[in-house]
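Weekly puzzle thread! Below is a chain. First person to post its structure in token form gets bragging rights.
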Amino acid sequence: MIQYLSKYLTKSLGDALGTDDPRRKAHAERLLNALRFEPCSPTCPNWLRYGVQPKNARAGMVPGRCKGKAHKPDHLGYAGRRVLVSRKWSNKTLTEHKQDRRTWVLEALGLPDEPVDPHRYIWRPVKPGDPELAPIGVRLLRSVHERQRWRNHINQLQALGDGPNLSATEARAA
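Winning reply:
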């Protein structure tokens, strides 16, 4: 998971093309040329090409001259999010997804779904240089470890519920 996140957060889409190959380079150029006139956001001037007034339109907007990330070679059409926003395909907000996950985990653990007490935690800003504050690297590693521990626990619970794994394709240590 960490390797995937590191790769995902640091990878430039343009790097993956391997533009040393002339065919791939030509393909990337064709793709960029095609994306040049595709609207990338509600404010993109490319909407003018389709007879639609962009959001916050201003004088001097010309189709094909958008300065958005989606029209730059390193992004190849992906301006910000590289995945579809969840509410566009599930009609749920992130809060609703979070509640669904919470309900599922509580059911798996056999715990009652009680409302969360808003005064359960006390939030106070931490001043820089606070001796009780661990360095960011340590805090991140603790978070990753805690997430791995939770995932392992959930996997154990699922295995107990599903019975033994009899998959012929999963590698097992003998």
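Puzzle host: Confirmed. Bonus trivia for everyone else. DSSP finds five helices and no strands in the chain.
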